[in-house]
Design goal:
By secondary structure, this protein is of the alpha+beta class. About 30% of the residues lie in helices and about 35% in strands. The protein is built from two helices and five strands. A five-stranded antiparallel sheet has the order 1-5-4-3-2, covered by helices on one side. The longest helix has 15 residues. The N and C termini lie far apart (about 35 Å).
Length: about 90
């Protein structure tokens, strides 16, 4: 992958809750998750991405992904991992 791709998602949960869930999920699957409620890095299984919270928008920029995995699948999985439904 040569060009990074960013995915922006409106967040309805408080960032603390989202980060706690993300760290638990990452640990469960052996993915490295380093960061806080402002920004961080996610690495593992051929992926490298960073994230940034701004107001109620989460921007995830993917720098590396497995070549066999299409972008549509990556975006679908990222959105599924982030709870986008208002409570």
């Amino acid at each position: 992958m040569k060009t990074p791709k960013s995915i922006q998602i409106e967040i309805f949960d408080h960032p603390d809750e989202l980060i706690t869930k993300a760290k638990e999920t990452a640990q469960k699957y052996g993915v490295h998750f380093l960061g806080d409620t402002d920004q961080g890095v996610i690495k593992g299984f051929g992926f490298k991405a960073d994230y940034l919270f701004q107001e109620n928008v989460l921007t995830i920029t993917v720098f590396r992904k497995p070549a066999f995995l299409p972008w549509t699948t990556v975006e679908e999985k990222v959105r599924a991992l982030v709870n986008m439904d208002p409570r």
